[in-house]
């Protein structure tokens, strides 16, 4: 759908509730709700906060729904600085459009048992600051040449590696935030989900008016979510 068609579909859906004396939403208000709906839709499809309880890669339709905003990138970590939590930690600046982490790996080099510098790709374990002290001292949870620890700090990734490892890159696959819907820019998600985004926007509109009216609308669209 074009932006104009999305707005028209929203108005058509709202027209079903004329008996409730609903207000006439202006186009800029509808665009705001469409953007809120688009964000909510992606979060539902990515995780399991939906009626089907599937993540986005568990069934083909969910993969198709948000494939346009899946983005791969390889980043170079910054050198260790005093702000790092550990002498073997490095920050990685995330892309400006970063939203949700799907998959990551550390590209490393280390000396193998023959003393040869060897490139490899290793697992990254996300931890919290509360878990850090215990993890870094525990021989079973601390980083080694097959594992790097990861924390989030001020919108950046902090990678903590072992002393015999050099991180050469950070391989990331993530969801970027969808481009905002405007009067000239339409929803960039798959065409097949545009009506579902409109339905979600209608729910948001009804939520803002009165919860009771929402109850008459939700049962009709829940069965369409896949």
Features:
226 residues, alpha+beta, 2 domains, 7-stranded mixed β-sheet, 6 helices, elongated
Rg over C-alpha atoms, rounded to the nearest angstrom: 23 Å
How many alpha or pi helices? Answer: 6
What distance separates the N and C termini? 19 Å
Oligomer: single chain
Order of strands, main sheet, comes to: 1-7-3-4-5-6-2
**Class from secondary-structure proportions:** alpha+beta
For the largest beta-sheet, the strand count, sense and barrel status come to:
7 strands, mixed
Strand segment count: 7
Strand content: 25-35%
Shape: elongated
Query: What's the domain count?
Result: 2
Average predicted confidence as pLDDT: 86
Helix content: 25-40%
Q: Outline the low-pLDDT stretches.
A: 48-57
| SSE pattern | HHHEEEEHEEEHH
Structure description:
This protein is α+β, with helices and mostly antiparallel strands and 226 residues long. It folds into 2 domains: 3-67 and 179-222, no CATH class; 69-176, no CATH class. It is 33% helix and 26% strand. It has helices spanning 3-15, 27-46, 60-66, 129-137, 194-207, 211-222, and strands at residues 70-75, 89-93, 98-111, 117-126, 147-153, 156-160, 165-176. A 7-stranded mixed sheet has the order 1-7-3-4-5-6-2, with no helix packed on it. A hairpin with a 5-residue loop joins β3 (98-111) and β4 (117-126). The longest helix has 20 residues, at 27-46. The protein is elongated. The two termini are 19 Å apart. Mean pLDDT is 86; it is low at 48-57.
């Amino acid at each position: 759908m074009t932006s104009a068609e999305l707005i028209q579909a929203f108005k058509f859906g709202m027209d079903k509730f004329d008996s409730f004396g609903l207000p006439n939403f202006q186009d800029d208000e509808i665009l705001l709700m469409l953007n809120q709906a688009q964000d909510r839709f992606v979060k539902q499809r990515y995780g399991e906060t939906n009626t089907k309880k599937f993540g986005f890669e568990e069934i083909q339709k969910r993969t198709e729904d948000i494939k346009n905003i899946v983005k791969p990138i390889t980043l170079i970590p910054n050198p260790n600085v005093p702000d790092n939590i550990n002498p073997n930690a490095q920050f990685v600046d995330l892309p400006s459009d970063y939203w949700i982490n799907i998959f990551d790996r550390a590209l490393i080099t280390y000396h193998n048992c023959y003393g040869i510098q060897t490139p490899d790709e290793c697992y990254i374990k996300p931890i919290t600051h509360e878990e850090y002290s215990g993890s870094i001292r525990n021989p079973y949870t601390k980083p080694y040449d097959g594992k790097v620890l990861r924390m989030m700090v001020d919108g950046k990734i902090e990678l903590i590696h072992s002393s015999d490892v050099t991180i050469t890159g950070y391989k990331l696959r993530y969801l970027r935030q969808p481009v905002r819907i405007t009067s000239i820019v339409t929803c960039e998600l798959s065409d097949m989900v545009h009506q579902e985004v409109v339905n979600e926007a209608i729910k948001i509109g009804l939520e803002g008016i009165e919860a009771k009216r929402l109850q008459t609308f939700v049962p009709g669209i829940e069965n369409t979510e896949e």
